[in-house]
Amino acid sequence: MSRWGVMSLTFALSILLCACSGAGQAKSYDIPSDVCGISVKPELLSPLLVAGDVLEERKSAEGGEYWKCRLLVDSKLSLVAEGGMLGGFRDPMEETAVAKRREEDVVRVRIGGEEAVLWASGAAVTFPCETSLFGSFVGVRLTTGDTEGEQKERRAHVKAFAEDFVAELKNHHQCAS
Questions:
Q1: Number of domains within the chain
Q2: Parallel/antiparallel/unpaired status of strands 137-144 and 114-119
Q3: Which residues form the signal peptide (predicted)?
Q4: What does the buried/exposed string (b/e) look like for 15-32 if buried means 16 or more CB atoms within 10 Å of the residue's CB?
Q5: Is residue 143 part of a domain?
Q6: Residues 103-138: pLDDT tens digits?
Q7: Containing H/E element for 156?
Q8: Domain presence at residue 33
Q9: What are 128's strand-pairing partners?
Q10: Residue closest to 158 by CA, chosen among 111, 113, 88
Q11: Which residues contact 169 (CB under 8 A, 6 or more apart)?
């Protein structure tokens, strides 16, 4: 094959790979201003959601001691937010099974001034909430479906969203802390 033929084939394969990888796809849906009934800043949520056409929220548990909802884009999992009332402090490190399965580094941090752990596709936080009807602490875990890209950058996006989500969750439950 001539040099021009090889270059043409390489160029064609490059275009095909870019088209198949989803590079350049946009989010054709509106970014919500709440997740699981908790107000959030869409600009902090947006980096955690994948490109696609249709965003859907599915709640599998709501109210009471435990809640969980999923954001799906074109029927693919994009974000899971779940939490519950706890009778006492629970080490957020106990909520890192997803990170271990994905072989992502887990680091201890503070989110909203509270004990937390953070990994590239999620975070777990435990905070006191004395006004809670069901317990004296709240545990929260956020997990994204996206595992593409630089871990450090993804971790920064997850932390920014988690800071906002935890602050709003504290307000929602009227926690004293």
A1: 1
A2: unpaired
A3: 1-26
A4: eeeeeeeeeeeeeeeebe
A5: yes
A6: 888 999 999 899 999 998 999 999 998 765 666 888
A7: helix 151-173
A8: yes
A9: 137
A10: 111
A11: 38, 83, 138, 140
Q: How far apart are CA 161 and CA 40, in angstroms?
A: 8
Tally Cβ neighbours within 10 Å of residue 34.
12
pLDDT in tens, 130-164: 765 666 888 999 999 876 778 889 999 999 999 99
Token duo for residue 114: 């509270």
Cβ contact 26:12 at 8 Å: no
Domain that holds residue 85: 28-173
Within 13 Å and on the Cβ side, how many CA atoms surround 120? 15
Q: Decide: 33 and 42 in contact? Cβ < 8 Å.
A: yes
Q: Using alpha carbons, select from 169, 71, 69, 73 the residue that is nearest to residue 126.
A: 169
The H or E element spanning position 172 is helix 151-173
Q: Which two tokens stand for residue 27?
A: 């989010």
User: H/E element holding 72?
Assistant: strand 66-73
Which pTM was predicted? 0.80
State pLDDT tens for residues 82-102.
998 888 888 898 888 888 888
